[in-house]
Amino acid sequence: MNRFVLILVFFLTFGSLNCQSGASPSQTGDVPANGVVAKYSFEIVNVYPHDPDAFTQGLEFHDGKLFESTGQEGRSSLRQVELESGRVIKKVDVPPPYFAEGITVFGGKVHQLTWQHQVGFIYDANSLEKLGTFAYRGEGWGLTNDKHSLILSDGTNRLRFFDPATFQMQRSIAVVDGQTPINELNELEYVQGQIYANIWHDDRIAIINPQSGQVTAWLDLKGLLPPNQVSSEEAVLNGIAYDEAGNRVFVTGKLWPKLFEIRIKK
């Protein structure tokens, strides 16, 4: 083997290895090389009325309509709400013993989780007529979709992806900040290719890479609702909705008297 061939083999072999050792941003979860996760703040764009008796478990903005799922046994519901006034336009009660949880709109249908009964409900997005049910294992907390899969949280640091047609699990990811598991993932929203997740009893929203599970940023919403308007220990931040057409982000909480449109400051 002549010198030229030896040099060519060496270059192809070790050059290939060097190229493979580098990871793209999506492979590393978009976490900076120094391992520091971004921290975002907010500014309030608009403030709207919100039912202070609504134990908000899910929030969704779709085709100009605001949907809300409220929890607690005997008080659970699915609602269509007028954004500007907070008025409930349509409402379907969820009967005991079910405790309603997160919602998402997919294929013209509202999908709604329940907490511990391993069953979800499906409604027509226009009439809120109940169309059927779907089953899953474990608890149901938050729900969103990426236009291909339903994405479910169950109170752990795991997010599961389901086929909307068969409700069979496709895959799951473990959500971590660096190496630290982020547990109690709650209400979810899919925003511009990232998953936004409320953390139960936390004023922060985790922004998550849907492929790797890495937290790429934290959105700190501390002080969004004035302390003198917090009615109980359970009146916590829980509810994220994204208006894709208008590029607007809405947030609220359980038993909050207000719903906020916010602008994220990076």
Summarize the structure.
The chain has one helix at residues 3-21; strands at residues 38-49, 56-62, 65-70, 77-81, 88-93, 100-106, 109-114, 119-124, 130-135, 143-145, 150-153, 158-162, 169-174, 176-177, 180-181, 185-191, 194-199, 204-208, 215-220, 237-243, 248-253, 258-265.
What does this structure look like?
The chain has 266 residues and is mainly beta. The protein has a single domain (52-265), classed as YVTN repeat-like/Quinoprotein amine dehydrogenase (Methylamine Dehydrogenase, Chain H, 7 Propeller). Helix content is 7%, strand content 48%. The chain has 1 helix and 22 strands. The protein has one helix at residues 3-21; strands spanning 38-49, 56-62, 65-70, 77-81, 88-93, 100-106, 109-114, 119-124, 130-135, 143-145, 150-153, 158-162, 169-174, 176-177, 180-181, 185-191, 194-199, 204-208, 215-220, 237-243, 248-253, 258-265. It has an 8-stranded mixed beta sheet, with no helix packed on it. The protein has a 4-stranded antiparallel beta sheet with strand order 2-3-4-5, with no helix packed on it. Strands 6-7-8-9 form a 4-stranded antiparallel beta sheet, with no helix packed on it. The protein is globular.
Number of strands: 22
Class from helix and strand fractions = mainly beta
CATH level 3 topology:
Methylamine Dehydrogenase, Chain H
Number of helices: 1
Q: Could you state the order of secondary-structure elements as H and E?
A: HEEEEEEEEEEEEEEEEEEEEEE
Mean pLDDT: 88
Task: Using brief descriptors, characterize the structure shown.
Methylamine Dehydrogenase, Chain H; eight-stranded mixed sheet; 22 strands
